[in-house]
C-alpha cells in the first residue's frame, strides 16, 4: 500500500466480511471498505479518498448523494409512504410508469412491470414471453450477461457469470464481435453479417424454428464481455429478421440505459424499436428498483410474478427524482461529451503505453483492452487485475473483466475529474509495467 494511506479500520471490517459473508456474492479485485460517497468520490473507513470510475458497475448516474435525490427520499420518509405495490396502489409507481412508457418508441399499447433488480426484470421477461406468445423457445447471445437468477442466467451466455445454468429451450447465437468474428476478418463499417445468416439459416432454420420462437434477447453493447460494440448494420438487420418472423426483440438496457452511452437508451443509435426492454441499475438513484417496459400483450399473459418490494414507493420517488436530474442537468449530453473526451485522452495514452491494445466505448461506458508486453509470465487477466489493483492503491476505483479495464464513472463527471483519474491510470500502468 502507498505510504500516505492508512488501512486500520478498513482491514478490520474486511477481515470480518471475509469471515461471514459468502464469496458467492463477491467480485473483488482489491481490499476496499467503503464508508461514504459524494459526487464522483468515495472514501474508505480510514478516510482515504478515491475517484469512482466504477459507480457500482454503472449504477450511479447522478453521482453519489445527489441533493435533489436525497431530498426526495427524505421527504418521502417523512410522509411515511415506503409502501409496496403488490397489494395496493400508490401514486409514485403510477407517475413513474407514465414517464417510462414514453421511452418506448413503438406505436402500440404499452405496459410496465416493476421489480427490484436487473436480474429479476430479465427473469420476468424470460418467463412471461413464451407464455404470452404461445411459442416455447427463446434465442439469446453467446457472451451475454442478463443477471444471476436461474431465468436470467439461462438467457445469459457469459463464460464466467452464467456457467452452471442449462436451459434446453434457449438457443445461443453468436454475438457480432468485430474484433473476434468467426467469419472475419471484416470491416467494422461494412460487415457482411455472416453471423446473422447463421442465426437465420442454422438457428431459425433448424434448432429453433420461427413458429416456436417467442423472442430474441440482446444487449446492444455486451459490457461484461468487454464492451463489445456490434457493427452498425447488425441491429437494424436483426430487427428486420425478427419482424419478418413475428419474433419479439427484447433488449437489456440495464447497464446501457438512462444515459450511460450518451443516448437515453443505447438502441436509439440504430433507429430500432424493441418490443420490450428492461432497465434497473441507475433507475432508483441508488435504491433498488427495476422496470420492464413493453407491448401490453406481453404483460397480459396469464402470469402472476411480483416481488413484495417491487415498485415500492420509496425507490419510485427516488427514480422520479433521478429522471428529473437527468433532464435538468443534461446528463445524457454530458455522458456523450465526457465520453468522447475520456476516449480521446485514453487513445493518447495508448500512443505511448503499449500495454493498451484498444480503447472502445460509447458515452461513459468505456473499455480499455490490454495486451502483454513480450515474454511476461503472467496471464493477460492477471495483468489486468494487477492494474486495477494498482489503480485502487493510487486512489482510482474501477472494474476489470478478463483483459478489459472498464470505466463507468457517474454521468456528472467533468473534464478535471477525468484528468485526475487518468493521471492515476497512467502512473499505475507505468508502475505495473515496471513490476
Ligand atoms: C447488462 C446487464 N443485465 C443484467 C444485469 C443484472 O442486474 P442486477 O445486478 O441488478 O441484478 C447486469 C448487472 O451487471 C447487467 O450489466
Short account of what is shown:
With about 425 residues, this protein is of the alpha/beta class. It has 13 helices and 15 strands.
Structure overview:
- The protein contains 13 helices and 15 strands.
- It is of the alpha/beta class and 435 residues long.
- The chain folds into two domains: 8-62 and 330-434, Aspartate Aminotransferase, domain 1 (Alpha-Beta Complex), CATH 3.90.1150; 69-328, Aspartate Aminotransferase, domain 2 (3-Layer(aba) Sandwich), CATH 3.40.640.10.
- The strands form three sheets. A seven-stranded mixed sheet has the order 4-10-9-8-7-5-6, sandwiched between helices.
- Helix 11 (331-352) packs parallel to helix 13 (415-434).
- The longest helix is centred in the C-terminal third of the chain and has 22 residues, at 331-352.
- The protein starts with 7 loop residues before the first helix and ends with a helix.
- Pyridoxal-5'-phosphate is lined by residues 57, 117-119, 122, 145-148, 219, 223-224, 252, 254-255, 280-281.
- Residues 57, 117-119, 122, 145-148, 219, 223-224, 252, 254-255, 280-281 line the site of pyridoxal-5'-phosphate.
Amino acid at each position: 500500500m502507498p505510504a500516505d494511506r492508512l488501512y486500520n479500520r478498513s482491514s478490520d471490517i474486511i477481515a470480518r466480511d471475509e469471515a461471514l459473508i459468502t464469496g458467492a456474492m463477491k467480485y473483488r479485485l482489491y481490499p476496499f471498505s467503503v464508508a461514504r460517497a459524494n459526487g464522483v468520490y468515495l472514501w474508505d473507513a480510514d478516510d482515504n479518498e478515491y475517484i469512482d470510475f466504477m459507480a457500482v458497475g454503472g449504477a450511479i448516474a447522478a453521482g453519489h448523494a445527489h441533493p435533489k435525490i436525497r431530498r426526495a427520499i427524505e421527504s418521502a420518509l417523512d410522509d411515511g409512504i415506503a409502501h409496496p405495490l403488490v397489494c395496493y396502489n400508490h401514486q409514485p409507481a403510477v407517475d413513474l410508469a407514465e414517464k417510462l412508457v414514453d421511452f418506448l418508441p413503438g406505436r402500440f399499447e404499452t405496459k410496465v412491470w416493476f421489480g427490484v433488480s436487473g436480474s429479476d426484470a430479465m427473469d420476468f421477461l424470460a418467463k412471461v414471453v413464451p407464455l404470452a406468445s404461445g411459442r416455447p423457445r427463446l434465442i439469446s447471445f453467446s457472451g451475454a450477461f442478463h443477471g444471476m437468477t436461474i431465468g436470467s442466467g439461462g438467457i445469459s451466455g457469459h463464460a464466467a457469470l452464467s456457467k452452471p445454468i442449462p436451459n434446453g429451450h434457449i438457443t445461443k447465437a453468436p454475438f457480432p464481435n468485430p474484433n473476434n468474428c468467426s467469419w472475419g476478418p471484416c470491416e467494422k463499417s461494412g460487415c457482411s453479417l455472416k453471423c446473422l445468416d447463421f442465426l437465420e439459416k442454422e438457428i431459425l432454420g433448424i434448432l429453433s424454428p420461427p413458429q416456436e420462437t417467442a423472442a430474441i434477447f440482446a444487449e446492444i453493447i455486451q459490457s461484461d464481455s468487454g464492451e463489445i460494440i456490434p457493427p452498425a448494420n447488425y441491429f437494424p438487420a436483426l430487427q428486420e429478421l425478427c419482424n419478418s418472423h413475428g419474433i419479439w426483440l427484447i433488449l437489456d438496457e440495464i447497464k446501457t440505459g438512462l444515459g450511460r452511452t450518451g443516448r437515453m437508451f443505447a438502441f436509439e443509435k440504430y433507429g430500432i424499436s424493441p418490443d420490450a426492454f428492461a432497465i434497473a441499475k441507475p433507475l432508483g438513484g441508488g435504491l433498488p428498483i427495476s422496470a420492464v417496459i413493453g407491448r401490453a400483450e406481453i404483460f397480459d399473459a396469464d402470469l402472476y410474478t411480483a416481488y413484495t418490494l417491487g415498485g415500492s414507493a420509496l425507490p419510485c420517488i427516488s427514480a422520479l427524482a433521478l429522471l428529473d436530474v437527468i433532464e435538468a442537468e443534461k446528463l445524457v449530453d454530458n455522458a456523450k461529451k465526457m465520453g468522447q473526451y475520456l476516449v480521446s485522452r485514453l487513445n493518447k495514452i495508448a500512443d505511448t503505453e503499449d500495454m493498451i491494445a484498444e480503447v472502445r466505448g460509447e458515452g461513459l461506458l468505456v473499455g480499455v483492452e490490454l495486451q502483454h508486453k513480450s515474454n511476461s509470465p503472467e496471464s493477460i487477466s492477471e495483468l489486468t487485475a494487477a492494474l486495477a489493483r494498482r489503480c485502487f492503491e493510487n486512489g482510482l476505483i474501477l472494474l476489470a473483466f478478463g483483459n478489459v479495464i472498464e470505466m463507468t464513472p457517474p454521468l456528472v463527471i467533468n473534464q478535471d475529474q477525468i484528468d485526475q483519474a487518468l493521471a492515476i491510470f497512467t502512473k499505475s500502468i507505468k508502475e505495473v509495467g515496471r513490476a
